[in-house]
Amino acid sequence: MLKDFFQSSSGMRFKSRTFTTALIAPGLFCLIVFLAVPCLSLIFLSLASKGTYGNIEWTISLENYKRLLGYNLFGWRPDFFFILLRSLREAFVTTVVCIILSYPLSFYIASRKTPLSRFVWLVLLTVPFCTNLVIRTYAWQLLLDPQSPITQVAAFFGMVPKGSPMYPGAFAVYLGMITTFLPFMALPLYSSIERLNWQLPQAAKDLYASPYLIFKQAILPQTIHGLYAGIIITFVPAMAMFVVTDILGGAKYMLIGNLIQQQFSQARDWPFGATLSLALMCLTLLSFALFRTSRISREGGSIY
Amino acid sequence: MQKRRINYNVIIAIISYFCLVILYIPCVAVMVTSFNDTRFGLSWRGFTFRWYSQLFENEYILEAALNSLIVATTSTIVATILGTALALGLYRANFPNFFGRIIRLSINLPIVVPDIIMAVALSVAFGFFRAFAPIFEMGMFTLVLSHVTFQISFVTLTVRSRLATLDKDLDVAAKDLNAYFFYSFRRITLPLLTPSIIAGAMLAFTLSLDDFIISFFIHGPESVTLPIYIFASLKRGITPEIHALSTVILAATIVLIIVAERLATVLIKRSKKEVKDALDDIGEKVGDLGLPG
């Protein structure tokens, strides 16, 4: 039985099999014991309920799921459901804007002549990717302060009342989200645009295709893998974001991430937190499945 | 037609520079503010280094910085070793479908699953183990352990992607020549892998230093790291030292990235040379035995 697990090109002896196991075991142990199993155990935790002192009472019920759908003592109020929808909308808008900005950006970097200037642009994209999220988000607070030049210009044009900050609010949140996730989208997209076969768009142009058609038929199919990677690493974390909304959104602007964080800190309601986490996980898996099917159908319809 | 294309290029350039501006304007704002000689407000009152000198007298900040460095260094070392071993083990063994799927799923979990769910899962796990061993009280140990857990998969995936491109023939050639595993590992596999191991370690280090979400869930009162300190001071009310601190962190990150890039190019060059030498050595030995090369 064990022999089947470790097939190798040149029949390994038992000794090297134990050696392979020893290589794999510690790392896999960490991942399974501290991550995979606890993720699964959230299912059981979500069925329990919160005790009086924030402890967990193991009485099996579907109470938390009812709460998630909006049933409480006072009838039906779908607050949590709206927060779920808002998280989806937030992530969707962020992803779309990042795609719109990333395509021109990647084209521009790819069209730089010298390797040095391409390298500099890539480093310029990587630096914000690696700088701290909390610092970058706080910096927007600084920039949207009533005293900052940006807010004063906006106030001059009557976009905000004089002397009031531009945060907290939807505008500040979107600004924070887009600047956080732009490199996430641009870097994978660039890696596929870099390898683009420019003869196809050129041929399409020679045949007088409209810019839209050139993009749809000659560029999009070639960059779909980078786009897909970008969407996944933008959409999923954007949905779960709680730092940006906490710093720039204020108390009114809650996403599911903020809600989960509250359950595990102030509210000390782990079972409900687990239920919310499961809901987020389902949304994540759903979006994976959705993007995958849409990718396949699009590839099927491409010119290849 | 010609005219139109030029227009597109201009639009593309404008959007690109716009992206650069929105990415960098926050960093610049923090840096400029950190030199401003006023405790409140943003109006410019002259240039000062005052906040930087105060920064190095603030024991809470120094402690948080030390904690960040300890956690990042320890967890990176452990995760690099475990992650590389995991990648090598998976390369050596072919797992049948079911086991392979579980292993692949566990490795991809930290990349696929949002940070906050990972943080929840880790705190549930530590909460469970705390009942059996007091070492799982929230503190430095749990913080390092949680960082190791998510770093492993990043190291493993980086090393694995390099292993996949490795010429299996090299390994087979070494084996045919009866080279011991450790010999061929030391002379061929390791030099070829070194750039990717370093890259994985660098990635792990930045991820750990940068991490806020997981640390926020896992940290205890004695294990406050810099991002947590900054977040907490946002709630308490910001002081100018925070601007200075942020500037120092930003500068350190930029230096780290440049060093990483340089190191990568140097290492790739060196590893190619080392492997060539190793193959020459083996070739010489084959020559000694009088076998056809």
Tell me what the structure shows.
The complex is a heterodimer of chains A (304) and B (293). Chain A is mostly helical. Chain A folds into 2 domains: 2-45, no CATH class; 72-300, MetI-like (MetI-like fold, Orthogonal Bundle). Helices cover 72% and strands 3% of the residues of chain A. In chain A, the strands form 2 sheets. Chain A has a two-stranded antiparallel ribbon with strand order 1-2. Chain A has a two-stranded antiparallel sheet with strand order 3-4. With 293 residues, chain B is an all-alpha fold. Chain B has one domain: MetI-like (MetI-like fold). The longest helix of chain B has 49 residues, at 240-288. Chain B is built from 11 helices and no strands. Chain B has helices at residues 2-34, 50-55, 59-92, 97-112, 115-130, 140-165, 168-176, 181-210, 213-218, 226-236, 240-288. At the A-B interface, helix 2, helix 4, helix 5, helix 6 and helix 8 of A face helix 1, helix 3, helix 4, helix 5 and helix 6 of B.
Structure summarized in a few sentences:
The complex is a heterodimer of chains A (304) and B (293). Chain A has 304 residues and is mainly α. Chain A folds into two domains: 44 residues, no CATH class; 229 residues, MetI-like (MetI-like fold, Orthogonal Bundle).
CATH topology label of chain B: MetI-like fold
Strand percentage of chain B? under 5%
Name the CATH homologous superfamily of the largest domain in chain A. MetI-like
Order of helices and strands of chain A: HHEEHEEHHHHHHHHHH
Give a topology summary:
The complex is a heterodimer of chains A (304) and B (293).
Chain A: H1 2-5, H2 14-45, E1 49-50, E2 56-57, H3 63-68, E3 71-72, E4 75-76, H4 79-110, H5 115-130, H6 133-143, H7 149-156, H8 170-193, H9 199-206, H10 211-240, H11 243-249, H12 256-264, H13 270-300
Antiparallel strand pairs in A: 1-2, 3-4
Chain B: H1 2-34, H2 50-55, H3 59-92, H4 97-112, H5 115-130, H6 140-165, H7 168-176, H8 181-210, H9 213-218, H10 226-236, H11 240-288
Helix pairs in contact in B: 1-11, 3-6, 3-8, 4-6, 6-8, 7-8, 8-11
